[in-house]
User: Which sequence fits this backbone?
């Protein structure tokens, strides 16, 4: 079995889908968590000045979605053919668009601008995306694609605490099908074991 | 051969990588271009209220990167194994991050905020990404990944006019390796034929 290393900050956020995917098949990995004070030095050595990064037998990769898609193939949570992979990618990219839109508000440096953007986020963007995502999960029997467990489900539940943190609300509340996605993933044996032993962090 | 339809506005922008990928293998497709005045009605029928969309034998897809990845597999511009696909995806996602960062400025509705953000874009973000992308193209012999032609190259050149339009500058100027990627893609027989016959549009 290859040696996996996931390197990120001591948070769930963008690395948690990767940790979920490996944990789903109980694949051991080196869970490296960089302390804030060490980051400026380490940042210089990162491909795009960002984390998470992944190493597989010492070969380094970056870009969280690209790495998640790779791991999904290793653990059998990808599609059975090109069209199925497209359906999963469509779901993942939609979830990621949602993340980017929430993140654009959360990381807006100008406080006044942020305040205005959060109003639009709360009144328009979040309701729009939640309605669409809830409908996708309803149409796929509590999953995001193919009416079965795929890496889109693990991606969503993996970043959910981070989304909730940035959105300042529980996004799955009152959305029974999104709640079902969450409960299904968290009930998976490998994920349950991982969640029980992972460091406790807010996001 | 499946029947392909690409539906978008009468611009290159996000649909052009899809049109490039099909044209690369001279695959005919229905090139539907929606007029601005018809968009409000059509928007309601789109999966996420957005275009481009693609239809393959009547089955509808959305999400431009997901569709491009699917088409890349149909025309043989994907990787030979999971790690190669990861390397291509890393390049594509990096190019797409660059697009998102330029787009965040271009589509900032508040004029004052936009002006301030464009200063940071020009002085920090664009130079940072161009240095990284130029280095990637240098390390891969005038390609973005695997030192050979992949869909990452077609994706970059496909959206380049759109990037230039939003950035208000010629991004490949004085970047010999990015220029090489561009020239290589535009010299491909299928792409040359497509460019010669496509509607002329600014972005």
Assistant:
């Amino acid at each position: 079995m290859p040696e996996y290393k996931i390197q990120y900050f001591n948070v769930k956020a963008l690395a948690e889908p990767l940790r979920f995917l490996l944990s789903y098949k109980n694949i051991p990995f080196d869970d490296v968590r960089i302390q804030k004070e060490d980051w400026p030095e380490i940042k210089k050595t990162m491909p795009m000045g960002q984390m998470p990064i992944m190493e597989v037998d010492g070969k380094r990769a970056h870009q969280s979605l690209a790495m998640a898609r790779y791991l999904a193939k290793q653990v059998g949570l990808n599609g059975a053919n090109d069209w199925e992979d497209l359906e999963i990618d469509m779901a993942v990219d939609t979830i990621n668009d949602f993340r980017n839109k929430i993140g654009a508000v959360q990381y807006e440096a100008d406080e006044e601008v942020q305040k205005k953007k959060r109003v639009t986020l709360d009144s328009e963007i979040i309701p729009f995306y939640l309605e669409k995502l809830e409908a996708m999960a309803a149409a796929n029997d509590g999953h995001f694609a193919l009416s079965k467990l795929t890496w889109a489900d693990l991606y969503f539940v993996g970043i959910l605490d981070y989304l909730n943190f940035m959105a300042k609300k529980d996004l799955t509340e009152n959305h029974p099908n999104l709640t079902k996605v969450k409960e299904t993933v968290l009930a998976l044996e490998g994920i349950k074991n991982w969640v029980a032993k992972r460091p406790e962090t807010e996001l």
In short: Chain B has a mean pLDDT of 98.
